[in-house]
Amino acid sequence: QVQLAESGGGLVQVGGSLRLSCAPAGRTFSGLNRAWFRQRPGKEREFVAALTYIGGTVYADSAKGRFTISGDNVKNTLYLQMNSLKPEDTAVYYCVATSPGSGWSSQAAAWGQGTQVTVSS
Q: Which of 5, 28, 66, 85 is deepest in the core (most CB within 10 A)?
């Protein structure tokens, strides 16, 4: 399994922005679907956004219009630009990578350790 490391989380005020980054150790993202999930306090993990290996993007309704997922093939890094942040965006955000067709489960995909995002009102 590829090892993933997230960074960029922190404390931000309502309406602010953060950019999360994720880089794999020991290999590139080439050929992998990538995504960001999050786990809000007291809630189950939920899908936020995905970037397919051919460049397509998918967003959860909660992320549409505010979040942008992107990848930099030169830097081998996945990003999640988050704008207009709300208190309900407070969560641990996880970077996930998986082979096409394998799904996002912890058995099938590689998950990072997560990075905390806290939005204060």
A: 85
